Structure to design on (257 residues):
C-alpha cells in the first residue's frame, strides 16, 4: 500500500476495478458425483446401539425468524450505496489529479499520496461490488462528478501543498460525517430486529463492519491532512466552506438521481 509512486503512473480506476457480474452467469458445469465404494462385510457382530441422547435445549428452541427489509429500508440502502460509490469515485479522481503537480514540488509526499489513493481505490472497488451484487444502478451524475472531482484535485494542487491538504480535510470531514450517519441507522435497525426476537442477517452485520472500516480510513486521511498544514492554506476558511458545501450538494443529488 505504501509503494513508491514514481515507479509507475496511476492505473486507470476503471481498468481492473470493474466487478465481475458472476450472478449473471448460469451454473452450467456440475462436478460428477462418484458412487461410494462398497464396504467389505465384517465377520464380527455389530455393536448394539445404545439409547439416543436427549436433545439439548438449543435444539428445542425454534429458529429465529429473519424478516426481509421493508420498502423504506431498501430505498435507504439503495441511495446510501449509490452515494458511497460516487463519493469514492470522486476521491480516487481527486488524488489522481493532485499527485502529479504535488510531486513536482514535494517529492517526499509520494508514499503518502500513494497510501491514500490506494485506500480510496479499495473503497471504490468495494462499493462497485456491492452495487453489482444488489443490482443498484450508479448515479446518473457520473460524468459530472468525474469532471468536477478531477478539476477540484488539479486546481487545489496547483494552489500548493496546503491547499491540496485543505481539500482533503474538507472532503473527508463531510464523508466521515456521512458514513457515521449510515452506521447509526444500520445499528438502530439491528437493535430493533433483536428486540423483535428476530435474527440479524450476516450480510447486514458485514455491511456495518465495512462501513466502519471505510469511515475510519477516511478519518485517518482527515487527520493526516491537518498534520500536513491544511489549515495554513491561504483563504482556508473560504476554501473549506466552499468544498464542504459542494460535497453536501453532491451527496444530496446522488441520493436522488
Amino acid at each position: 500500500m505504501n509503494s513508491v509512486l514514481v515507479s509507475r503512473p496511476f492505473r486507470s480506476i476503471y481498468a481492473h476495478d470493474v466487478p465481475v457480474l458472476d450472478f449473471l452467469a448460469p451454473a452450467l458445469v456440475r462436478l460428477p458425483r462418484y458412487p461410494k465404494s462398497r464396504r467389505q462385510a465384517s465377520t464380527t457382530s455389530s455393536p448394539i446401539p445404545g439409547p439416543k441422547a436427549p436433545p439439548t435445549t438449543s435444539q428445542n428452541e425454534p429458529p429465529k425468524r429473519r424478516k426481509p427489509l421493508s420498502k423504506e429500508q431498501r430505498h435507504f440502502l439503495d441511495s446510501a450505496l449509490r452515494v458511497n460509490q460516487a463519493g469514492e469515485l470522486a476521491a480516487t479522481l481527486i488524488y489522481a489529479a493532485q499527485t502529479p503537480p504535488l510531486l513536482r514540488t514535494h517529492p517526499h509526499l509520494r508514499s503518502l499520496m500513494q497510501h491514500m489513493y490506494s485506500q480510496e481505490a479499495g473503497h471504490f472497488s468495494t462499493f462497485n461490488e456491492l452495487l453489482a451484487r444488489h443490482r443498484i444502478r450508479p448515479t446518473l451524475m457520473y460524468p459530472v462528478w468525474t469532471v468536477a472531482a478531477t478539476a477540484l484535485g488539479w486546481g487545489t494542487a496547483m494552489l500548493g501543498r496546503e491547499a491540496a491538504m485543505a481539500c482533503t480535510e474538507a472532503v473527508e470531514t463531510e464523508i466521515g460525517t456521512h458514513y457515521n450517519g449510515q452506521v447509526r441507522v444500520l445499528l438502530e435497525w439491528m437493535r430493533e430486529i433483536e428486540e423483535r426476537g428476530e435474527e440479524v442477517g450476516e450480510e447486514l452485520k458485514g455491511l456495518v463492519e465495512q462501513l466502519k472500516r471505510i469511515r475510519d480510513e477516511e478519518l485517518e486521511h482527515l487527520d493526516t491532512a491537518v498534520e500536513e498544514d491544511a489549515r495554513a492554506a491561504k483563504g482556508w476558511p473560504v476554501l473549506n466552506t466552499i468544498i464542504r458545501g459542494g460535497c453536501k450538494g453532491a451527496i444530496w443529488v446522488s441520493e436522488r438521481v
